[in-house]
Amino acid sequence: MSNIPWQDRPEGSNDVVWRYSENPIIDRYAIPSSNSIFNSAVAPFEGGFAGVFRCDNKAVQMNIFAGFSKDGINWDINHDPIVMQAGNTDMIESDYKYDPRVVFIEDRYWITWCNGYHGPTIGIAYTFDFKEFHQCENAFLPFNRNGVLFPEKIDGKYAMLSRPSDNGHTPFGDIYVSYSPDMKYWGEHRCVMKATPFEDSAWQCTKIGAGAVPILTEDGWLMIYHGVINTCNGFRYAMGSAILDKDDPSNVLYRTQPYLLGPAEPYELAGDVPNVVFPCAALHDFEKDRIAIYYGAADTVVAMAFAKLSELIQYTKDNSL
Amino acid sequence: MSNIPWQDRPEGSNDVVWRYSENPIIDRYAIPSSNSIFNSAVAPFEGGFAGVFRCDNKAVQMNIFAGFSKDGINWDINHDPIVMQAGNTDMIESDYKYDPRVVFIEDRYWITWCNGYHGPTIGIAYTFDFKEFHQCENAFLPFNRNGVLFPEKIDGKYAMLSRPSDNGHTPFGDIYVSYSPDMKYWGEHRCVMKATPFEDSAWQCTKIGAGAVPILTEDGWLMIYHGVINTCNGFRYAMGSAILDKDDPSNVLYRTQPYLLGPAEPYELAGDVPNVVFPCAALHDFEKDRIAIYYGAADTVVAMAFAKLSELIQYTKDNSL
Amino acid sequence: MSNIPWQDRPEGSNDVVWRYSENPIIDRYAIPSSNSIFNSAVAPFEGGFAGVFRCDNKAVQMNIFAGFSKDGINWDINHDPIVMQAGNTDMIESDYKYDPRVVFIEDRYWITWCNGYHGPTIGIAYTFDFKEFHQCENAFLPFNRNGVLFPEKIDGKYAMLSRPSDNGHTPFGDIYVSYSPDMKYWGEHRCVMKATPFEDSAWQCTKIGAGAVPILTEDGWLMIYHGVINTCNGFRYAMGSAILDKDDPSNVLYRTQPYLLGPAEPYELAGDVPNVVFPCAALHDFEKDRIAIYYGAADTVVAMAFAKLSELIQYTKDNSL
Amino acid sequence: MSNIPWQDRPEGSNDVVWRYSENPIIDRYAIPSSNSIFNSAVAPFEGGFAGVFRCDNKAVQMNIFAGFSKDGINWDINHDPIVMQAGNTDMIESDYKYDPRVVFIEDRYWITWCNGYHGPTIGIAYTFDFKEFHQCENAFLPFNRNGVLFPEKIDGKYAMLSRPSDNGHTPFGDIYVSYSPDMKYWGEHRCVMKATPFEDSAWQCTKIGAGAVPILTEDGWLMIYHGVINTCNGFRYAMGSAILDKDDPSNVLYRTQPYLLGPAEPYELAGDVPNVVFPCAALHDFEKDRIAIYYGAADTVVAMAFAKLSELIQYTKDNSL
Amino acid sequence: MSNIPWQDRPEGSNDVVWRYSENPIIDRYAIPSSNSIFNSAVAPFEGGFAGVFRCDNKAVQMNIFAGFSKDGINWDINHDPIVMQAGNTDMIESDYKYDPRVVFIEDRYWITWCNGYHGPTIGIAYTFDFKEFHQCENAFLPFNRNGVLFPEKIDGKYAMLSRPSDNGHTPFGDIYVSYSPDMKYWGEHRCVMKATPFEDSAWQCTKIGAGAVPILTEDGWLMIYHGVINTCNGFRYAMGSAILDKDDPSNVLYRTQPYLLGPAEPYELAGDVPNVVFPCAALHDFEKDRIAIYYGAADTVVAMAFAKLSELIQYTKDNSL
Amino acid sequence: MSNIPWQDRPEGSNDVVWRYSENPIIDRYAIPSSNSIFNSAVAPFEGGFAGVFRCDNKAVQMNIFAGFSKDGINWDINHDPIVMQAGNTDMIESDYKYDPRVVFIEDRYWITWCNGYHGPTIGIAYTFDFKEFHQCENAFLPFNRNGVLFPEKIDGKYAMLSRPSDNGHTPFGDIYVSYSPDMKYWGEHRCVMKATPFEDSAWQCTKIGAGAVPILTEDGWLMIYHGVINTCNGFRYAMGSAILDKDDPSNVLYRTQPYLLGPAEPYELAGDVPNVVFPCAALHDFEKDRIAIYYGAADTVVAMAFAKLSELIQYTKDNSL
To answer: What is the pTM of this model?
Structure first.
């Protein structure tokens, strides 16, 4: 993949991850019905990029929309939400859809998202073309959020990260991995990593959740995730990274004690939910040693950040908990 | 009424309600003692306009102040709060006063506000000249907020919208209508409309409250109101509209599923209470097809927005829950 | 009234209020459908007694039932709940009915209760014969409980005590008085008495509510009420008394610092809601200097207690806050 | 099955479910280490009965113990907890075990329980002899409780009821059904029934959970479950029944609006957790038309209740929500 | 000390600590004003015993009263609370007094209790005769409870156990030791032992607090304490024991994983606060190898339990966390 | 002290306290590891200034760092946190350190801060040179914050203000004074001032805490403090002043009803914790009648404000509660 979005590190900066200077790349009102567009995911598609976007409308109903881009920065987002067809089962309820992730596995693109079925759980769908989408069984019982598939099978089975939750503004949350032989039945649930003790790394002491689809590197699976601290004025979301064992991702090899990127710019500090940096996707190019991260800012807009892949991996190893 | 404040819709905007370009119109420090001026109400008066303003002082004590304006935009607010005389009863306690509304009925101006009497309830006063004010019986037992009178009697009785509450940062709240033969005894309490299910219209799923004095149109009473969603970082207030049956306002004919205006500008996103758009008054001119809405922003300043009356009514009917 | 239930004070007891030795007088399963019968009210009727009883059925739905007794102790309670006809208004919703009080004023019996209308508020009905009941307007907006009418008009108006609440297990609550010219519109709301500071009288430091219909004595209105303390294992309800000014019942002349009766017997300590003594009615006989108090125990059964009227009044005066 | 425990309905009782006169059948101190023995399950075994018992020790650590009985009433419970061997996977963590259920499917007994794996989830094990137990994969991600297997496969798959929860004293909870081809991977999660609106059936308005293993009858699956109401003095647990469609148990055919049995006896009203009736098992005999229900009382002891099967089914149909 | 109360272990019992068969020894109404008498402390005095008793009056005001006994079981409690004189400072406020402990050090008896000074903290007084009491400086800033002095100086300084708290029904709490050269200034605060992880010993997983004055044994300080678990129906208090290093009591040598005595008798299971066993004092006789423990039951009455000292110590060592 | 930082009051301003025009003076990323630098303290030192700074690193671990400045505005902060040596005791635990204060007493500089010892309490250290620091005993048991020493002994004893707290986002808090003969043992705890009733001064109605080291003036001790109001969107911190009796600082002579400075500038309204103005230090020059106040803004940066000393004192006296 050689045409992913890119911008060099700013002069004088030593940051391992830096923001795109033209952030945010997608405004809250980018389509006519939207109140906000954020926490969205993209993937390479037909020489360019396709994506699935969380667009809350002005009734603040949450749904996911397909979009397309030549350069990964300028996006055309459909004005109507994705309409699902039945996948590996009869159609099931979906009161709302939000926080999508996208990953290509074997022959098709898989979408996971937070699906409203008597509370939040993990919805699954596949598409070949970002036009027709086939909705499958929910992966888990409620209550769950932040379901993220690995981009290839592990030991012959699909593997998914998720974050068991409750039915409100969950004040706890750890990352688990589960396996499935068929994208329908899931089991072998293992705890991957937990929120940290306050003293060890406070930015991720309340809850954590997987962000972008993990990237297989020589060191293991590079997972970009979010962590949350509960301040006296609400939850603050920041971004970190971890490296998981290639064969057993419940084995955490490294995990950043410092955050990589926290809310500091105006579009991260103010919006519908202040102080949120929430990564949902990343494009990478091993050859050019680049990674481009997409994140929702303040639950309002989509922003980007960049890093050198090798530096990010080295930083994760050097600053591990 | 032909001289209400007005500014045309900005080029390129399709919004049914748009902001005044010089917002906020009243700064938090507009009078010497004030910490913030917001959630205030105005009415036509002697060829110009008079208003009652919520000015919290720097001890963050809440009180209401009279003010006057030629154009409805530039205001002279008295430096001392309104001093009440006894109205239809002996003087009663008033630990604090906030969120006033103003309406002319028959021969005088009536003021309602949130009155501190062993907790918040609805205070009532009348004035002929915005100099002398006569305080009447509280309409209801505590705990109540957002009491708004109809501008004319219904079936021979005064009618008031209100929002029963509790004694704190109330996490629930629906709009009721009550009637009185005499502005002293109130009864015939009927539920008008309730907070919506999260899935149907999330911006108004936690609580709602009447805003401006209802406007009688051919379609019924046009009521501008506020709705609240409880995010993980606090309450977010936005503005919607509804049309109530002319003869029985507990019969809701239409109610906007989308919000009309939500917090998005810096003065709405940051302030003493971030993410608040709180309408308390509206001036209208049927002939010119105009409405000018006054709203508090971030519990800190007063701002204005405009709409074409006919468009606003049509939008309410076309986008109803 | 010369035939009210009575039992002399037990040997050796100095208590101003003492329990009936055969308590409880009404068992939880006294009618076929009931899960519990408690918090109920009685009045003299046709030489004997009639009452309105809270019987929760085995679906734990709350409703009120008429009952009759020759001696005030042995009761025949109807097996079907009261069916209301329209009183001074069209019929209004009533999701549930509980905690009734009964009082004779002028020419008829008035029933008040906690009525489910978008949350708890005060329902009102009248009957001449305890067979036909006519439901009137709710007295107040939600949320309210413990509405108790005075047995005669005060200054030409009906007068009602009530306790504004919220929509859950209200952790606060004070007693107010309101007036009505017509049992339809209510106003002139005045605070009567509040929960006490913890240090002054802890048994009534969380919330209080009127119990029996006040009794007019030479010293003023004798009001038996309940008070609540929030322990680390839940709410504990006990019984106290106060004397209110005859002409202005918002003027509290005396109020017991100690409770009169607190949960101590097995049927008060255990049941659906442990540790509840909740008075709802009292019969009195000035000539014989007797008062018989009916109270709900543990939200499960009905019990009785007795006192000498003169002693109770003297005790209230001697042990006042 | 012709020798299940039995006691005729008491004289004069009309109850559809009645208590065993010698309750409780197992005392809290029945084994040397125990603080309490409750919420336990039994099954026919080798002409008599075997069971798995929740015995909390005096450190209030929760574990499950095997026990044996000739008559189903007098039990010998092992003094040491069950030691698990690996079943269909490597051994997994189990911080605690509680609230077991037991069911015979095809060739072996399956045990499910609430298993401590980073919070409560559903543990699974099988045994042929109640001596050797083989622990399998947890059915679900945390947080879950009240996992109950159907006694035969449905459409070729194992089926399990469960109640998604959070990690504390969960204040919500509905019953779901999930399927597995192999007792390892689970999916096709469907909502079966939810807590009821307060007005409809308050005893089950806070949360519900499956109790005994469902019994296949001509009318469908007879499921005995518990429901909870949150009073101002804590949770109160009672017992109800439902009939689920034979082929699709997410289709609820009938469900009792009244409870069948609620806390009323001293051993139900007082104990480590007052006001708990919690069914976990039932033995039935179609020929004699009998069912014997085992339930935990007050989180302290084991008690029994009986019913005529046909009456219980008819009652469920006649008193359905 | 050879005449402490005693009763042999019941036939057939293996309990290390057993209850007095005539419990409770002091009834809730033992003095005229009392609502409850519990959580009280005693000491040998003039050949018999003296004590300081928590008697809440019928206004549920908390105060401490002196009492005297010949046998330690039958007590004469003064009808009036202790009146303090100034000790090592001017008199300080005391809104309420509860949960006293008593200890003889060097030449006088020291009383500690929970003293209401802008919230709960530790009050200190001394007496020579249980008639005149001299109140000293509060040991600590609010909020604190369960202050217990060691019966002799450690390294030349007074030493006190305490449990920092908050201003409500504290849901956390660990035991600390602090030192003072003069009973006026306190410092060198060290954590002694904390509430346990739920999995390790759930009965003491919410909070713990020192109970009786520690007894110096050959193994170290024997400390009887209470532990609390938060069930879905409230706090449950039980009794445990620990052995602390003689020279550095912040060094915990042994601590019981099982409780010694938990609420199981009617007077412990029901009362003003159900499910409370709360030890505040212990008399011991090394020669006869006896210990007599006084504990409050259900926040309502005073009860006793007995143990063989050597057995209790051995049990603590054998069943240590 | 004649070279403290200074900037004249802006033209047209009447504010008694005004902000430095180049605020913030220290950016969040001023040292390589920092996420935020705020709530810090300074003192005159060797002709310039030294300070102790709270720098949270990017793992959001809280620690304190020494820094130096010639002009009090431009600061060189060490890149490594202060390493403590043992002071008047063995080294004790310190899980974290935050919100330092600095004061010179007699012969050395004393540092106090919020020290993590089983929760927050007050840590104490001294230094002669801001290079070597000696950590002493914690002043108090947990939980405590905002410990501030007086700059000279009172009645021969060290005196410290503090604010007892709980272990979370404390929703209450009053200021106390305590005394010590030796900086090791503390006692004579007296309440100084409490949070105000909402109606009297709402900005300080939730909790208050001492800010800068008190300044001895002719009128008494001038104490700059913070007050907090709990809005529906979180805590809002503002700055006030009080004057305490010279000889008995628990005697409050004056206390500002209005705040002196509240969050209004972008760097105060947005950041890691929006709406925080938190003073921790002040430099004064009696001769030039100047005071320079250092405060943390939005828990993210350090800012300054100025006042004329005489005006500030007069304002405090003229606007007292």
So the answer is: 0.96
